[in-house]
Amino acid sequence: MKKVIIIGGGFAGLTASAELLSAGFHVTLIEQRRFLGGRAYSFFDKKAGIELDNGQHILMGCYEKTFRFLKKIGVADKLYIQKNLCVDFADNRGGTYRLDCLPLPAPLHILSGILRFKALSLTDRLRILNIARGVLGGSLTNSSGNCSVAEWLAGLGQSEQSRDALWDIITLATMNEDPDRASAAIFKTVLRKAFFTGRKGSRIVLPAVPLSRLYVDAAETYLKQYGGDIQKGCLASEILIKNCKVSGIRLRDGRIVRGDYYMSAVPYHSLQRLLDAVIPAPASAWVNSAGIHGLDSLKSSPIISIHLLFDKPITRYPFVAAINSPIQWVFNKEMIYSDNAYKGLVSLVISGAHHYVDWTSDKLIAMSLSELRRMLPLADSAKLLYSKVIKERAATFSPLPGVEKYRPDQKTPIKNLFLAGDWTDTGLPATIEGAVISGLKCAKAIVSI
Ligand SMILES: Cc1cc2nc3c(=O)[nH]c(=O)nc-3n(C[C@H](O)[C@H](O)[C@H](O)COP(=O)(O)OP(=O)(O)OC[C@H]3O[C@@H](n4cnc5c(N)ncnc54)[C@H](O)[C@@H]3O)c2cc1C
Questions:
Q1: Does residue 9 sit in helix, strand or coil?
Q2: pLDDT by residue (tens digit) across 301-343?
Q3: Which of 177, 242, 268, 417 is 20 to 30 A from 286 (CA-CA)?
């Protein structure tokens, strides 16, 4: 039986492990932390007495490979799935608007939603048709494909109001970066997949239970059932290379684990450390098949999550997108989880949070409360019982224009080493779906050797 060593127990590593085990390989999964799940996990908060996510994760109906993985491990029923795309928006003057798409074939469904979306003037709604041309008919702007989302939107006649009420919110949610900094090329891929491929692909899908309860427990059970060897609390410190082949992985405790194939499913900054230990800097240049660019060219973008527990519900919607507010989303966990234990809990998201990441928790909470009270009238009379701020400084890589050339393929010049992770070349921004796709690609490459 061929043996595969996988470093990293996030979505990428777990998907690859499950795939390889069911294809008859022996898998050893090495994870530095005492729990699996990587950047998408939940933990029991003793003070709140409930389990909280490290950050709200939004899936979309087009996350096909993720749903396939969740089905494989038997948890596809633990999701909150919309029938059709429907998003409630609130502005900081108390106005509310609904983007409500009719059950029509794509892209008519999204058109039906946009044309009735009253947060935008009629002229702006009609101008959104230009986006369809921009996505489906190729670039109308910078032909190099290296422009930012903001430049691309401006080239397609999108007004400031359109950006405030729609585009900035979509860009930050899907790219974790500000439109002025995010790559238009990647954004176009997101729009094409989410809005132009099929009606169901546009639906918002949310975990209906805390993240670790959604997939980590089930993935662990699945891997063990198939004979997987899971080593938690084990830091890989070095990839050992001999005669142009990986010969083993050295762990921090000095042990060396050996297999036939090796897969890194760690973030780019962790891989850089693993490689720098063995190859003189800049090790990263070696990873890219082109051999000219480096991992150190990738930058991180932060996400701040703010969990607020009130004495009563502050919104009657499952989630609300915030117009013209530093807080981009408010998730009503009581409704999403259908669980009274979460009564009064909302989770706020600030993506691309470069400007806010150094704020103190107190300042972030004060700002959040003031924004909520302006947006959601029910928040005015609600009493805050508990709060928890979680800053993920390296939440994702930053999808800057031109970043594609720094994202390596899953196959490397070293025949028995493969790279997975949301940052590898998937064509997508850093998402669960990208991580899962990268894990599947690695598994497929190993199976077909
Ligand atoms: C707050 C937040 C909100 C997000 N929101 C969304 C969202 O709404 N929708 C969406 O699709 N995506 C979202 N994402 C992104 C998503 O979480 C990631 O794309 C995905 O989880 C990445 O999975 P991965 O397996 O590639 O990497 P990771 O999850 O980072 O897994 C890598 C694993 O490797 C381990 N590791 C690292 N170094 C070593 C080492 N030397 N030895 C052993 N183990 C090691 C780490 O501990 C980790 O467990 C969000 C991320 C964050 C942080």
A1: coil
A2: 999 999 999 999 999 999 999 999 999 999 999 999 989 999 9
A3: 177
- The reply to whether 174 and 245 lie within a common domain is no
Number of domains observed in the structure of the chain: 3
Ligand 1 atom having least distance to the Cα of 395: 53
* Residue 81 lies inside a defined structural domain of this protein: no
59-60 sheet: strands from edge to edge: 59-60, 204-207, 79-81
Note whether residue 69 is domain-resident. no
Q: Is 303 touching ligand 1 by the criterion CB < 6 Å?
A: yes
C-alpha 40 – ligand 1 centre gap (Å):
6
294, 319: one domain: no
Task: Specify if 57 maps to a domain.
Answer: no
For ligand 1, atom 27, the nearest C-alpha belongs to: 10
Is the residue at 96 inside a domain? no
Calpha distance 116→88 (Å, rounded): 13
In terms of domains, do 113 and 191 share one?
A: yes
pTM of this prediction exceeds 0.85:
yes
- Is any ligand 1 atom within 6 A of the Cβ of residue 236? yes
pLDDT of 247 reads 94
Give the residue numbers spanning the domain of 323. 300-397
Predicted confidence band of residue 280 (pLDDT cuts 50, 70, 90): low
Q: What share of the chain is helix, strand, coil (3-state, %, to 5)?
A: 35, 25, 40
